[in-house]
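Example 3.2
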Amino acid sequence: MRNHAADPAGNRQTERKLRVARRIILGSMVFVLLIMVFLPLLEFMAGAESVVLWRVVLAEALAVPLGVIMLVMLRDRLDGRRDPDPRLYWGSIAMAGVASAALQIPISNMFFLGAWWGVGVFVASRTRGALVSVFLLVLPWLLIPLSPLEIQFVPFLVSWIVSIVWALCLAAGSLASIWLWDVTNDAVKGQRARARLAVTEERLRFARDMHDLLGHSLSALAVKAELANRLVDRAPERASHEMDEVHELARKALQQVRTAVSGYREVVLAEEVASVGAVLSANGTVVSVSGLDGLDLPPRTSALAAWVVREGGTNVLRHSDATVCQIAFTPAKGTTVGRALVVEVSNDGARAGGAPKETSGNGLAGLSERVSMGGGTLSAVRTKNDGFLLRAVLPL
């Protein structure tokens, strides 16, 4: 029984993609946090003659660790922590408030608070974020007495509105990134859960079949062997007869094991197509099947076709990043083997290097030998746009 879902290579590939996506999101947020770091310096360069140096130094001294704290809270949010460390969260708000108070140009402290809000509002719960948002909207008005500049109402109001629009734009980008991360992460977890469930169900089915097939035979073996052991001294002839029956039961049990294993190895074509489709779908690949309905095949051809579908599906799962897999069955005439069934398994995302020659000891080389022994031919080639096609011609 092949474990389609247990694919370490595919899991590593998925984990690598998630790590890259996580770094990209953190990198995009770093740009926003750098705005807070550079605002005090920009204010210093814009008003070098009238600026109060200690206020610039204070704002910059708070902006740098504030950016680091925000990055840590954002990292925790991407890791699934919806409730940030209270010390970091409330500490960052306090630092943002003091730093904005140290800034001397109103538009600077508004943009500083907007940069914090564009990221920080999404690392905590909605209720807490709403309360903090109201506080940050009012804070610039409360800081007016601390500004050394003469404040005029209309320009201040316009700056306040502009800073709100700017903060909303930052928040939209942050929300989109975090939302896409959550959706992607949840989808990957769901695929893994479905794949584990498929493997568990297959194991349970195998265990149930083994129990049903062998439970009676093995119980009878135990009873007969125990009876023969008790009779060996009192009735040797009967003990010998019982041992003959033990031997016969053991032979039948062995035959049942071989029959059961053969049933799992020589799978039914329709069941194998359904199984491969379910596993690939759980891995995020869209599967389309054509030509199977109404197809009447000899048992040997059907078994070979099932092997081709199984190996083709395994290669798609393990050696591709396919979004689409097509499985096609086409009766044909005039081939090198006469009347034949053409089985094709293709995908649109073969990885560099293609499928290896062997997978789990029974890969394309083993499949080629099996098809050849059945009188057919097998080919595996790359197609356009990084696709891959496994094609078998099986005699009818």
